[in-house]
Amino acid sequence: MQQYHIYTARDFALDEDFQQWVLKPDVKNNYQWETWLKQHPEKQKVVDDAIILVKSVRFRDYQLSGEQKDQLWDAIWDDIATDELPVQTMPQKSRLHRLFSWKYAAAALLAILLGTLWITHENKQFQALTLSTSAAPGETKRLLLPDSSEVVLNAGSRLVYAQKNALLREVWLDGEAWFHVHHTKGNTKFIVHTYDRLSVEVLGTQFNVSNFGNKIAVTLQQGSIRLHITEQQSQHETQLYLQPGEMLRYNKQDGEYTKSRTDVTKIVAWTHGQLMMDEYTVADAIQFMQQVFDKQVSVKDTKMLRYRVSGSMPIVYNADTMLIQFEKAFGVHFYKH
Predict the structure, then answer these.
(1) pLDDT in tens, 286-315
(2) Cα separation of 281 and 329, whole Å?
(3) What is the pLDDT of residue 115?
(4) Are 212 and 252 in contact (CB under 8 A)?
(5) Domain count of the chain?
(6) Which CATH number covers residue 142?
(7) Residue 78: what pLDDT?
(8) Pair 116, 157 in one domain
(9) Which helix (H) or strand (E) holds 337?
């Protein structure tokens, strides 16, 4: 077998033999991989993560009402398919009106079932596609995009991926996600849209985008990204570059933004199941429960909202357990609604 002993989970997920074993196991490949794992037990965790990545390319089917489907297709068709796309699964729409706000476009995301693996080879003929997925409250989702970029989608987040030509890859994000963008031979652009006058253009990098409530935060971990910000009044577009370790905070209400240095490891700790708390308030904990679990909680005295703690705790994707952890950390009692 190849030099699998130096492979990462991402390397395994992109390996054809590994994909074949995960998706179409038989006597031969079962024997080969089980024998190899016995010889390299230290790689078991890496292989398990790679299996999750490969299987993540198959989305669950979502049940949508007729009205929700109309809203979704109108928005996607208007925002993505300005030219007719040769995607067999996308129906032709007769009425096209712009639904710019994600709360309409992503009211429910339609998962397009694929008959074959998303991972494609660059020597194959290009085919346009549009795909979507979401992470339910109380769970995260790790997946590979069709271009082999890796994404970790945070709880309560939704994502649409579209590529209508070989020169541009686009993502629409509502919520939070960490990206490890695959660099292509043709330097294909990768752009993340937030539906709120701010887009992130990527050349091949690792970064985090948080798009909850009235705030957007973009944090660069590695590589280089360019931000496109459209002014609310003048519609003038401003372009800013981020360097590794920098964060841009954007306020959706007034269009104000700031750029600063930050500890990236704390920002992306959620992708490893950790909540890093630096002067973390009770108000922050309440917002966390809303974003991650879609749960409304409160405290009896509003003065408690300013209580602060610093440290870290594991993110347990069970609302009751997480709430107990917060109560112990702050020494307060939360009330559920």
Answers:
(1) 999 999 999 999 999 999 999 999 999 999
(2) 10
(3) 36
(4) no
(5) 3
(6) 2.60.120.1440
(7) 53
(8) yes
(9) none
